[in-house]
Write a structure and sequence with these properties.
By secondary structure, the protein is α+β, with helices and mostly antiparallel strands. The chain contains 5 helices and 14 strands. It has helices spanning 35-49, 56-69, 120-131, 175-183, 226-237, and strands at 20-28, 31-32, 74-82, 85-92, 100-104, 116-117, 136-140, 146-149, 153-158, 161-164, 187-188, 199-206, 210-217, 220-221. Strands 5, 7, 8, 9, 10, 11, 12, 13 and 14 form a 9-stranded mixed sheet that branches. Strands 1, 2, 3, 4 and 6 form a 5-stranded antiparallel sheet that branches. Strand 12 (199-206) and strand 13 form a beta hairpin. The longest helix is centred in the N-terminal third of the chain and has 15 residues, at 35-49. The radius of gyration is 18 Å and the shape is globular.
Length: 245
């Protein structure tokens, strides 16, 4: 781990017991996916929130050292940056291959522009869905527009077009979401709750699972066919690991 100051206490989810911003990054054989995109997002958030970023050369040096010391076939790299310093961890990640079952969260959840910790409120929403036998849940804003899930962005096939909600609806600017929009012809538009019956296929977009197919929304079964398999292949082809350099 790398730290500018010693933080010895961590919460139940592995975050330092303070507040700050974080990035979670998938690694393949010690090489992170989209590290540059993650660090640009962290820099934007740090500037907006008044958090000083560590020097880039120092951070890269710490990352190289950690990834060389702890290399996994598939790993989860987490970078936490806060007022007192930073903390980096890298651990093995067990990939889940089953499609996701999503439910709905009944309360309006304000959108967040920055990936901040503590992250307890989102884990609580996630646990509520899991207690009901689902993997995650769909969140809505005050206009009854879909935003994201508890821990991921959403992508849906509606009337033959792949669409994802806009950041202005209350969506975290996810790294994999950005790749899908820029590289895979995904459209950005509001998705109203009334459109749920029109959803044909869907994905949860997040840095670890990249593009996880959604099999059900509530009791409604979605298709996992040629169109969704093609979209998943496209997204994954643009989310390849690279060395830290």
């Amino acid at each position: 781990q790398g730290e500018l100051s010693v933080i010895s206490e961590f919460d139940a989810h592995g975050f330092p017991k303070t507040s700050g911003i974080f990035e979670t990054i998938k690694t393949i054989n010690g090489e992170p996916i989209a590290l540059g995109r993650h660090m640009r997002r962290a820099l934007d958030s740090a500037l907006a929130l008044g958090i000083q970023m560590p020097p880039e050369e120092e951070l890269r040096s710490q990352l190289v050292t950690l990834l060389n010391q702890r290399t996994f076939e598939v790993g989860k790299l987490r970078i936490c940056i806060y007022a007192e310093g930073y903390h980096i961890s890298h651990e093995a990640y067990v990939e889940k291959i089953e499609p996701l079952r999503l439910t709905f969260f009944s309360q309006t959840v304000p959108g967040e522009q920055h990936k901040q910790f503590p992250y307890d409120h989102r884990f609580e929403i996630l646990k509520a869905a899991q207690d009901e036998g689902f993997d995650d849940c769909i969140l809505f804003n005050g206009k009854n527009e879909m935003t994201e899930s508890a821990v991921a962005n959403l992508l849906f096939l509606i009337q033959g077009e792949w669409v994802t909600p806009p950041i202005t609806a209350g969506v975290l600017p996810g790294v994999i979401r950005a790749i899908a929009i820029e590289k895979c012809n995904v459209k950005v538009r509001p998705i109203h709750i009334s459109e749920i019956p029109d959803i044909e296929s869907g994905f949860s977009l997040a840095s670890l699972r990249i593009a996880a197919p959604i099999s059900h929304i509530g009791e409604m079964k979605l298709k996992i066919g040629d169109s969704s398999q093609d979209m998943e292949a496209q997204i994954r082809s643009h989310a390849q690991p690279h060395s830290v350099g």
